[in-house]
Give the backbone structure.
Amino acid sequence: MQPQINPTHPGLSVRVADDGFAAYIWGSDFSFEVAAYGAVQIGSPVAQWPITPITPYRKCYGIDPEEFSSFRDAADSAIFMAYLDDQPVGHLVISTNWNGFAHIDELAVHAPARRHGVAKALLDVAQFWSRKKKLPGIMLETQNNNLGACRLYERCGYVVGGIDHLRYRGIDPNTAEVAVFWYRLFENPLENPFSSSASPRLVP
């Protein structure tokens, strides 16, 4: 797959992950602030979910670059890296799930590079990859305390397909964290998602 350039942010591009992936992971900050929990309402916009504010804290996922090493150069999976002015700032891991949907196994953006369209560019590439494989859509999971991610997926056309109140109880029996499953359904997997001149384009 050729590099993808985002015309809205000319310094932003997405490429297939290379040998610099591990060094990028170890040198990045993927933490984010949690300030509230949302009570997910399936079928309602995120802005209408009841919110419970909490004392803010930072949450950080321990990302291991070796966890997805087999996903590179595989027929049914891929790892993409986003670059901002030639510096790696984000990544996306995607694979074909057992139910036929593309599954975003991981999406993360280096904290200082957020609000530059990086996550949106990675999701656009995920859509391109999924449509090219003629899959019916994309699925992913986030949590009700990552409201920024929930708002992003909603803006990108994803809808909540389900929630799981028990998923994280094995880690913390008293947790208020709820798993939220998002889906981006394609009406026509063969339709060109980048027909508009305002959309990302492939370049040599």
